Amino acid sequence: MSSTVDYYELLECERGADGATIKSSYRKLAMKYHPDKNAGCKDSEAKFKAVSEAYEVLKDPQKRAAYDRYGHAAFQNGGGGGGAQDFGGFSDIFESVFGEFMGGARGGGRAQQRRGADLRYDMEVSLEEAFHGKATEITVDVSAQCDTCHGSGAKPGTHASTCRQCNGHGKVRAQQGFFVVERACPVCQGAGEIIADPCPDCRGEGRVEKTKTLSVNVPPGVDEGTRIRLSGEGEAGPRGAPAGDLYIFLHVKRHPIFEREGTTLFARAPISFTTAALGGALSIPGLDGRTHEIKIPAGIQSGKQLRQRGAGMPVLQGRGQGDLVVQIEVETPTKLSVRQRELLELFRETETGDECPDSQGFFAKLKGVFAAE
């Protein structure tokens, strides 16, 4: 089912949805289709596996970026996708969905803290900014640690106590026929602890929604899709658990003159037919602030590319620069003065055919073909 259905459609999310929205939608759908709530329903079981597969891909920034670009093909032939087969069973999937409440190790012990979700931020930069790099600030709305309780979830001056129902494991077991089913503790909701007096600001979650201003350093040489990681700036974990990371994906605006391929810059330069015939030079301002002189050899043809070494984009986190490649486009004049037309007529009268060997050769071939017939 999931191999042909769009992952965003499965999770009922827009393609630009942030990590928190995707996670929230996943929880709702996983709870709706969970086998424990739909015993014996094959359709619900298939949907549960499908939304779990979709979430495994979209919650990971690298997998999500690959999926956004290549779709399902990114994970075919061992491409690293997050299929339902990656899970050990329904218990693993359920634990993945409701991790912060069921984060205990299988062998016992206290419930483990689950780190907060990673988040994604898309930033647009100009080609000039991609060349030089820049320091900037961004504003994000994110779930952050509660300052009142310092992430504990308990009212200041109080503390959480171990859940007596599960003895701090966060899970309880129940016999169902021949099987033993492990579920989240219904008393502490998988946390392993009970907060009798929750923090009034975060209501026991240990985190609140905040608007944060973050400094971002964009290094020189970044390209479309370059990812910058801000460690610990993602969603805060519940009740003092470590925060996730914030991934900034860069998008480079289209430039009116230059096109880019890796570290190479490309530009199209129209020149007059007299310059093409006689030769000359082009002065092209580069992104590096220098003016680059491109020599045009006499007799150059349209489509010819001239390369200026070291005038392209800088190497990301490296040394040196790529090249600037200028593609020549010979422009035929459309408006001529009387004098210019007279001079061109005189030039045509002196033509022997040797001036344009390609044209002469083409018509010679045509003559030979028709003569043979």
What does this protein structure show overall?
- 25% of the residues lie in helices and 25% in strands.
- The chain has helices spanning 7-10, 19-33, 42-58, 61-70, 90-97, 127-132, 273-278, 338-349, 357-372; strands at 119-125, 134-145, 161-162, 171-176, 179-184, 193-194, 207-218, 227-230, 246-252, 259-261, 264-272, 280-285, 291-296, 305-308, 324-331.
- With 373 residues, it is α+β, with helices and mostly antiparallel strands.
- Strand 10 (259-261) and strand 11 (264-272) form a beta hairpin.
- Helix 2 (19-33) packs antiparallel against helix 3.
- Among the domains are: 1-97, Helix Hairpins, CATH 1.10.287.110; 259-372, HSP40/DNAj peptide-binding domain, CATH 2.60.260.
- Residues 77-110 have low confidence and may be disordered.
- The longest helix has 17 residues, at 42-58.
- The two termini are 62 Å apart.
- Strands 10-11-15-14 form a four-stranded mixed β-sheet.
- The protein has nine helices and 15 strands.
- CXXCXGXG motif repeats lie at residues 146-153, 163-170, 185-192, 199-206.
- Zn(2+) 1 binds at residues 146, 149, 199, 202.
- Homodimer.
